[in-house]
Amino acid sequence: MVSGVFEGGPFERGLRLGTSARSAIRFNVNEFWKLAESQGLSRNLILSKHRYDIREIEAREYIKGVAQSSMVPLADLMAFNVLKPLLSPDECTVLIAMKDSTSTGMTTMLKNSDKVGSEKLVGNNFYRNKEINVVVMEKPDNGNKFVAVSAAGEISIKMGMNEKGVATGSNISRTIELREKKVDISQVRALDRGWLMREGIVRSSTAEEASKFVTSELMKSPMSTPGNIEFVDSGAAILIEGSYDQMAVQKVTSGVVARTNRFVLLHDLNDPEDVSSYARLTRANELLRQNKGKISPDRMIEFSQDHDNGPGLNSICRHDADFRSETSLAAAVMEINTTAPAKSKFYVCLGKPCNAWPSAKAHTIIGLDATPQMIPSGFLNGTTWKEFYTEEPRTQQL
Fold first, then answer.
1. Residue 192, C-beta contacts closer than 8 angstroms, at least 6 positions apart
2. Is the pTM of this model over 0.85?
3. Which option is the CATH number for 6-388: 3.40.50.300, 3.40.109.10, 1.10.10.10, 3.60.60.10?
4. Which is more confident, 90 or 106?
């Protein structure tokens, strides 16, 4: 079993990932094709319509490495990485407390990662129509070491943090434009938010540096779907909102801030029928403000399991019996060490937060100074997620 930090160039790191999570990658790619089919896009149509020749050299080489070691056809893996974020974008809830608002004096960020399913995603009972999540830890030859959560086989990340103490997360935004826009597979941005997040923390030592890189890229080519990207370090949180033709940036240096699947700055674009995003944003801000000055990683973990307005689609820990709904699949709390960023901590659970956080087997703490042996193999190969993903809410009191 391959475990620990994936070091080296992009091809070598891709090889390690493909070996570590081979079965999970193959499952996710197979389910991607079923998802595409459910939206009227056959594999033959997609591969004939667009070659998905990703222009970012590092990304292309990384995916080649994953394809070789996972034994998934390269064309399939290219399409998976380019199209899946558009066909099945991340729904998420992000809560941020700057260091003046925590009990530890360390800026802390929570992200619950939510995702849709499909009636075509009919794997065995463990998979329940959703994609498999894994943890990756990498040290590129030409960039920062980082730890992150991703869908097995994706170069994009859902949330992550680097050795310089820069954390990142993102959310799709449910806008009127998004509801009305149809997928055009011939006009898709090569890689989207998850890639920009990865590159931001690989390249940057501060949240401001990461945000400057991302906004520069978005000026060249806007997001494929409307959404938010957040970069946070010990001194600042920078929140980028981007749509097809608009962008806005907020900088926060004290207090608390939250984002769900809606815009705050570009609020005129929001879909008025999207009740869940409004309910979760209201609840997230309520929790942050009520606990201001007392927020810690443990308190953020409690917020991650919150069932107010639920349990259901309107709660922070999201549940629904219909697998096509956007429900919570993983969560991470990132505590940024102010004086020693390399000692920052990445608290992560794979599976439904209300079930995974209370289980010693389903959550772990990863330091950015971690050794390879410190990451349990189940977090790297997808078996932990398969065991702890369920739509059944935990009913016991925390």
1. 85, 86, 156, 223, 224, 225
2. yes
3. 3.60.60.10
4. 106
